[in-house]
Amino acid sequence: MTATPPPPPASTPVPPKYRVLVGIEVHLQLRTRSKMFCRCPVRFGSPPNTLTCPVCLGMPGALPVPNRDAMLMALALATAMQCELAELTKFDRKNYFYPDLPKGYQISQLDRPLGSGGVIEIITEDGVRPIRLQRLHIEEDTGKSLHEDAGNVSRVDLNRAGTPLVEVVSEPDITSAAEARAYLTALRALVRYLDISDGNMQEGNLRCEPNINLHIEGPGGTTIKTPIVEVKNVNSVRNVGRAVTLEVERQLAEYAALGPAVADGHRSTRGYDDTHDRTFLMRRKEDAHDYRYFPEPDIPPITIGSAWLREAAERVPELPHARRARFVEEYGLSDYDADQVCRERPTADFFEQAVKAGAGAKPAANWMDELNRHANERGAPLDQLGVGPERFAALVKMVEAGKIAHKAAAREVLPRMMETGEEPEQIVDELGLGQIDDSALLWSAAQDAIDQNPKAAADFRAGKEQALGALMGLVMRETGGKANPKVVRRVLVEILTESDPEN
Ligand code: ZN
Ligand code: MN
């Protein structure tokens, strides 16, 4: 007989050791003028079925012609992600039936994708980490089924059918919710830098499906692999993190209930339910789908020649990681500040122009959050706020020179600059916001504060530095918040240390 170790008591479960493996598939709509295989415009919000033709309606005999611009955009992305570029690429038919797929197949790429391998660098609190990529390929989008609440009716809108998509598939290198969020953030920044897609998840032009499973350390040094779960309907960076967290919890609970038998389960697809913050089962994959792929007979294979490669490379600007490194080197920003500023190209551009116009790099970097907040509130891009980098730099310089308090600049001057287009100096004058540097006035306000609160003064003299806060508060109130806090502090300390009554 072999002795079996007693199971741990149910009241004190030992959490198993495990690794989280997440691979992410992203579908990205390219911002081309026309569709992937026909000349219909790519546009959102037109009346249903007005942007269609025999090709994207799947009429017999209609012939697809690949969109050169879409090919170049995809090549630029593959170049930026350091994929190995195909010399010869081809399209394939992926056959399946769905009401919003009029041809009964999707034109995609199977064995000769445009790009293979490659990497996306992500930044988390733990630093920079490369996430390896499997592939990048081009395909076409489907139409949209519209399910109406009343009348049991479903309609199909084919305006989106044939919109160019790039699919990017990562290796399962992502190991946490934070890394999943960082991956999407990095990919989105990349496509926006390349100016090939809006990369907007809410509007569905960047769609993501994380594949999640666990490798659990089982009894006797075995590794128990939970079945891979693919999560659909994830429509924000935040929700990708939620989907990963929820799946890890759920798969651990399943292991707690089933033990090693959990590994015998089937792969499955779950949906993410935003309202209830949970995932729910959509379908189990008993067998792999059989899409009966075969080469698209209507599109000959395409040779990617040197002219194409050159044109694609020309479309690749200085990318976020290179720009980050340069901002650290050239402007002395911290890694954190450089990362914040470089996440979006318009922010990095605005920042750099402001610094060239004389703003200090560190203060300008700190201000970018404030500017982006205004941009978000107004739903306007940074370059349409009514405050260009030059006038913004003038405001930052005034704060740096102590001519106005940061708070007043952010709360009063910047919003008014955006509204009226006035110069910051003018607004500061009009609103009387200039910081009080008049030392005579400050000295008397400081002396008043000390007289009013002798206890705080005594505490400070006894070595309690926090006591200064109460006195500073009094002076700031007395001066209507216009005193320069640094000067107030200096004046108070000077008075308190020099006229110590005990000396
Ligand atoms: Zn069409
Ligand atoms: Mn796909």
Short structural summary:
By secondary structure, the protein is α+β, with helices and mostly antiparallel strands. The protein is built from 15 helices and 18 strands. It has three domains: 18-303, no CATH class; 318-431, no CATH class; 439-498, Arc Repressor Mutant, subunit A (Orthogonal Bundle), CATH 1.10.10.
Kindly provide the radius of gyration, computed on alpha-carbon positions and rounded to a whole number of angstroms: 30 Å
Terminus-to-terminus distance:
88 Å
How many distinct helices?
A: 15
**How many beta-strand segments?**
18
Mean pLDDT over the full residue set: 90
Explain what this protein looks like in three dimensions.
With 503 residues, this protein is of the alpha+beta class. The protein folds into 3 domains: 18-303, no CATH class; 318-431, no CATH class; 439-498, Arc Repressor Mutant, subunit A (Orthogonal Bundle). It has helices at 68-80, 177-194, 237-258, 306-314, 320-331, 335-342, 345-356, 361-378, 389-400, 406-420, 424-431, 439-452, 454-461, 467-478, 485-498, and strands at 18-29, 84-85, 88-89, 92-95, 105-108, 115-116, 119-124, 127-140, 144-147, 154-157, 164-170, 206-217, 223-225, 229-232, 268-273, 278-284, 294-295, 302-303. The strands form 4 sheets. Strands 1, 2, 6, 7, 8, 11, 12, 13, 14, 15 and 16 form an 11-stranded mixed β-sheet that branches. Strands 5-4-17 form a 3-stranded antiparallel β-sheet, with no helix packed on it. A hairpin with a 5-residue loop joins strand 12 (206-217) and strand 13 (223-225). Helix 2 (177-194) packs antiparallel against helix 3. It starts with 17 loop residues before the first strand and ends in a 5-residue tail after the last helix. The chain binds zinc ion and manganese (II) ion (MN). Zinc ion (ZN) binds next to loops.
